Amino acid sequence: MNFKYKFCIWLVDTLLLNEQGLTIDEIQHKWRISSYNPDGGLLTERSFHRYRNETESLFNIDIVCEKNNGGVYKIASTEELDKNTAIQWLLNGLRISNLGELCQKHQNLILEDAPLGVQRIQIIMDSIEQNKSLRLTYKSHYKLPKEYFFVPVFIRLFKQRWYVIGADVEQNRRTTFALERILDASIIEKQHKLSKELKQTLNPDT
Fold it and tell me: Where are the domains of the chain?
């Protein structure tokens, strides 16, 4: 993982764990012994401020220095981290990326298998962004593979399984597919408009 991202996520997690704040000396010491910094490289004050700005920009937070409180640094408000699901995913994604590196170096970190079907997410998101339909081949538990013309609307992760929810064009009904059971998918140029009823039903909020 890029050093910048390593430090940004480490800084956020470290300040979250030390709500009272940390001085620059304490931050430098904690970084030197952190597993995110296996080589034990030193953090200069200039580098800290540069990456502090990167962290604020990346996660939309403010890291303030309370000079009247011993010069400690802390996150001004955790509201954005708590309520913004996209930022939580970004944080977790970076954490998992670092775990992947640690797994290659250590035998005392054991993970479950990653959720299946992740490789299908990009083409589905492309289809949604381009407002295009998909031609996909799906294999359910007890049936032979079948081809569908499908309008994806949104994706959901539920109990470690990825699903895409949308409309079966031929049946004109809401349909849910598990990504791990999609054998093939391709974007088609023809656009299929959803009926008014389906638009109301296929609402991620409901």
Answer: 3-105, 118-201
Tell me the mean pLDDT in the region 7-19: 88
Report the C-alpha gap between 126 and 179 in whole angstroms. 15
CA pair distance 202, 176, nearest whole angstrom = 11
Q: What is the pLDDT of residues 48-68, one digit of tens each?
A: 999 999 999 988 899 999 999
Q: Which two tokens mark 31?
A: 């970084």
Q: What is the mean pLDDT of the segment spanning 98-126?
A: 71
Q: So what CATH class is 118-201? A: mainly beta
Instruction: Assess contact for 102 and 35: CB atoms under 8 A.
Output: yes
- The whole-number pLDDT of residue 86 equals 77
Spatial neighbors of 121 by CB under 8 A, at least 6 apart, are 155, 162, 179
Q: Which residue has the higher pLDDT, 185 or 205?
A: 185
Q: Which residues contact 204 (CB under 8 A, 6 or more apart)?
A: 153, 154, 156
Distance between CA atoms of residues 31 and 105, nearest Å: 19
Question: In this model, does residue 112 exceed pLDDT 70?
Answer: no
Q: What are the b/e assignments for 169-188, b being 16+ CB within 10 Å? A: beeeeebebbbebbeebeee
